[in-house]
Design a protein that fits this description.
Blueprint lengths: L3 H36 L2 H4 L5 H9 L2 H26 L2 H7 L4 H40 L5 H4 L12 E9 L4 E9 L5 E15 L2 E15 L2 E13 L18 H13 L16 H12 L4 H9 L12 H25 L4 H33 L1
Antiparallel strand pairs: 1-2, 2-3, 3-4, 4-5
Helix pairs in contact: 1-4, 3-6, 4-6, 4-10, 4-11, 6-9, 6-10, 8-9, 9-11, 10-11, 10-12, 11-12
Length: 382
């Protein structure tokens, strides 16, 4: 049980660390978001989506970015706070006022648990929802910037299964001259249209290319049909961009992924595949996604244990700087190991169990060693 003074001291330290964490995490998230937003401009310039779709798509990537920066920023904030308090002699004030280092360590572990829960909530639940919503915006959007995709005297194949060539265009009136269109319906059938002029119009809210004075060529299983036309409308609503619109595994909700794994293990012999939802070919990827969402955050406890080794040394110690450097490097290695471990999970049952146990065992081992060191230092003082 914490007494009143301990509560005040711990509250101050944890609040200082939380403020620093939020400042760095939000700043880093925004920097990464801006960089990615610049890269996503291809959705407008090359894929023909509107700025509204672009804005929503980039905005919905914020939870994913924030989730990814949490482990690194958590380590930096704890590492920075402990060093800052040590160099300002504030930790010494803690110890002089009777704060027990082991109790302080246990408070840090409880504090880490909050970030562990936050990481799971973001990566396991919120991020898949926002990523799926972002993909839905792309999938359901029309080609609002279709005219900007058309370049004079260039073959354009940005639109899926459709190749377009225009000799010249009038941007002010959305009109075109000497138009070539090839609609690749499937491997056996294609439609080719030559037209002298054309105009982009809306027919009852549907984006349509109205063509004048041309030839229509229908190729179906090596049979060719040709006829002339004075005017025809080419419906563009059936075409989408080549942007990826199918739901990736990381965009699927955790419940559906766990349901797929349950179906796979419970009915392995009579496993029923659901196209686009649950497929044997993606079982390993699904396992790794589950590990990434719910088990990789366990490395936060390993990180806090590594950083807590700062508690056994003082800045007056001649090797204090070396200890700081070693702790920093080891913590970075543990964060890198958490990323590498994803690729080992799911290959077989043994490797999966070992991959999950490693952060737990490391935490217990480091905790045991640290407790021994801190207890020894306390006895030595007495």
């Amino acid at each position: 049980m914490l007494n009143f003074n301990e509560k005040i001291i711990f509250k101050k330290f944890l609040l200082d660390n939380t403020y620093f964490f939020l400042f760095v995490a939000i700043s880093l998230t925004l920097i990464v978001w801006v960089i990615q937003a610049v890269n996503f401009l291809d959705f407008v310039s090359e894929d023909g989506h509107s700025f509204k779709v672009y804005f929503y798509y980039t905005l919905l990537n914020l939870p994913r970015i924030f989730s990814k920066v949490i482990p690194v920023v958590f380590f930096i904030s704890i590492f920075y706070s402990l060093i800052k308090y040590e160099e300002n002699n504030e930790l010494k004030i803690f110890w002089i006022n009777g704060i027990n280092k082991i109790k302080f360590l246990n408070v840090l572990i409880k504090y880490t648990f909050l970030f562990f829960i936050l990481q799971i909530l973001l990566s396991g639940f919120l991020t898949p929802i926002t990523q799926n919503s972002a993909r839905s915006f792309i999938k359901n959007s029309n080609l609002d910037f279709f005219p900007s995709l058309l370049k004079e005297k260039k073959f354009i194949d940005t639109v899926d299964k459709l190749t377009i060539f225009i000799d010249s265009k009038n941007d002010a009136e959305n009109t075109f001259k000497n138009i070539y269109l090839k609609d690749q319906v499937d491997t056996q059938q294609s439609k080719i249209i030559f037209a002298k002029t054309g105009k982009l119009i809306d027919v009852l809210g549907v984006r349509t290319l109205r063509l004048y004075g041309g030839v229509f060529i229908n190729v179906n299983d090596n049979k060719t049909t040709i006829f002339n036309f004075d005017k025809t409308d080419f419906d563009l609503s059936n075409f989408g961009t080549k942007s990826v619109t199918y739901r990736k595994i990381q965009e699927r909700d955790s419940r559906s992924l766990l349901s797929c794994l349950s179906n796979f293990y419970m009915n392995n012999i009579n496993f029923v595949e659901i196209p686009g939802v649950c497929n044997k070919d993606f079982i390993i990827e699904i396992k790794q996604e589950i590990f990434k969402r719910f088990f990789k955050p366990l490395y936060l406890f390993v990180v806090i244990m590594i950083v807590s080794f700062l508690l056994i040394s003082y800045r007056e110690n001649i090797i204090y700087k070396s200890i700081k450097s070693i702790i920093f490097i080891v913590a970075i290695i543990s964060l890198a190991a958490s990323e590498i471990s994803i690729s080992y999970f799911g290959r077989d049952n043994f490797s999966s169990i070992i991959t999950v146990l490693i952060p737990l065992l490391l935490f217990l081992l480091l905790y045991f060693v640290l407790i021994k060191k801190l207890s020894f230092n306390e006895i030595k003082k007495q």
